[in-house]
Amino acid sequence: MQKMEKIENNVATTLTPLLGMTLAQLQEVVKNLGMPRFTATQLAEWLYTHRASDFEEMNNISKNNRRKLASLYTVGRYAPMHEQRSIDGTVKYLFATSDGKAVESVYIPDGDRATLCISSQKGCRMGCTFCMTGRQGFHGNLTPAEIINQIMSIPETETLTNVVFMGMGEPMDNADAVLQVIDVLTAKWGLAWSPKRITVSSIGKMPELRRLLDETSVHIAISVHSPYHTEREQLMPVERAFAVTDVMKLLSNYDFAHQRRLSVEYIMWEGLNDDAMHADALAKLLRHVDSRVNLIRFHAIPGSSLRTSNEANMVAFRDRLNSQGIICTIRRSRGEDIFAACGMLAGKVKDKNQNQ
Ligand code: SF4
Q1: Which of the following is catalytic: 104, 170, 208, 265?
Q2: What is the pLDDT of residues 135-166, one digit of tens each?
Q3: CB of 131 closer than 6 A to ligand 1?
Q4: Range of the structural domain that residue 102 is part of
Q5: What is the pLDDT of residue 343?
Q6: Angle at 167 between CA 218 and CA 98, to 5 degrees
Q7: CA distance linking residue 64 with residue 70, whole number of Å
Q8: Helix (H, G, I), strand (E, B) or coil at 247
Q9: Known catalytic membership, residue 342
Q10: How crowded is the C-beta side of 261, counted as CA atoms within 13 Å?
């Protein structure tokens, strides 16, 4: 089990968080402490149904057992240390991690939907050239507790309708933790969410992606950005290890027409991947998978010569895909003024007027 340093009343404590544990793991905890097995079910209820943030709230567990638990464990809930609000209603939250780093989550209200975009790693080692998170380098994986805390400790937690693993990091580079969090989110003893409320985005790290496809029924988003091998590997080094054509072959074995959905993410850059030839090649790449394409404006990052496509090119690209039977939409940007839009997360407090 991973230890977590938690700041409680400004005092750092190194205790193991219970948040993020599965029922089986909680059963192991209570067994090791000599407590009855049903205490694990009570703990799961307090953690995930009643959303307790302190052992003192758990009043159907004896005082003695609560004391024992508190000597070795912490609940694991902690509030974000900073927030920034966009003019469009998007809110970016900054969460401290156990080793003094920080990660970001983005709350995106949209009509009757409220989506939280969460991080799975501190930075990222995938090295995509257009991504602010990739520029930060890799500083470690988040624990299941640190991932699920983002969902359960924002002020809007009770109103969330959806969660997307599209924040900092490549979720399939931290697959064990991400799969555990999905288990907690969807299990009856956990938050009991439908998997349809969850989307995991990946650049196509194939062995772990296969696990995600086999072990869950959450929605999948795959970042493609170019249908051509040489061009894509310059943008996304992962292409060298896992070619997008092989990723599509893998995905073609799964059903995305009924219970789960496959989205293809495609950032559009002026003069790079936004012409008719790319649209046709993308349509060809996707011919054996049921998917819908999201076209994404590029949000400029410092030191990058890449520029976003103009509206006319994006519309023409969308229409060309639509005319070939592929559902394609242009995604509305959210939170750009607070550096919360796609590819802009850096795990740092930034001023709205700051430009780097
Ligand atoms: S785009 Fe995703 S996988 Fe690539 S560097 Fe950024 S966070 Fe990592």
Answers
A1: 104
A2: 889 999 999 999 999 999 999 999 999 999 99
A3: yes
A4: 82-338
A5: 67
A6: 105
A7: 10
A8: helix
A9: yes
A10: 14
Residue with the nearest Cα to atom 3 of ligand 1? 170
How close is the Cα of 122 to the center of ligand 1, in Å?
11
Give the pLDDT confidence of 77-134 residue by residue, as tens digits: 999 999 999 999 999 999 998 888 999 999 999 999 999 999 999 999 999 999 989 9
Task: Annotate 153-167 with b (16+ C-beta within 10 A) or e (fewer).
Answer: bbeeeeebebbbbbb
In whole angstroms, what is the distance from residue 44 CA to residue 51 CA?
9
Are 174 and 303 in a shared domain? Answer: yes
Query: Active site includes 8?
Result: no
Report the CATH number that the domain containing residue 70 is assigned in CATH.
1.10.150.530
32 residue type, one letter: N
Domain count across the chain: 2
- 160 plus 111 within the same structural domain: yes
Residue 258 near residue 297, CB atoms below 8 Å: no
Mean per-residue pLDDT for 44-48? 98
Task: Decide: 128 in ligand 1 pocket, CB within 6 A.
Answer: yes
Q: Tell me the CA distances in angstroms from 204 to 62, 135, 136, 182, 239, one per residue in order.
A: 47, 19, 21, 18, 8
Same domain, 93 and 217: yes
Residue with tokens 């943008």: 235
C-beta 132 within 6 A of ligand 1: no
205 and 146 together in one domain: yes
- CA–centroid distance, 273 to ligand 1, in Å, is 18
Confidence band (pLDDT; 50, 70, 90) for 9?
Answer: very low
How many angstroms separate the alpha carbon of residue 128 from the centre of ligand 1?
A: 6
Q: Number of C-alpha atoms within 13 angstroms, CB side, residue 252?
A: 11
In this predicted structure, the answer to whether residue 75 has a pLDDT above a threshold of 70 is: yes
User: Using a 6 Å cutoff on CB, does residue 344 contact ligand 1?
Assistant: no
104 with 58, same domain: the answer is no
On whether both 68 and 92 belong to a single domain, the answer is no
As beta bridge partners, residue 138 has 123
Which residue among 128, 131, 328, 342 is the active-site one? Answer: 342
Residue 316 Cα, ligand 1 centroid: separation in angstroms?
A: 27
Whether ligand 1 lies within 6 angstroms of the CB of 4 is answered as: no
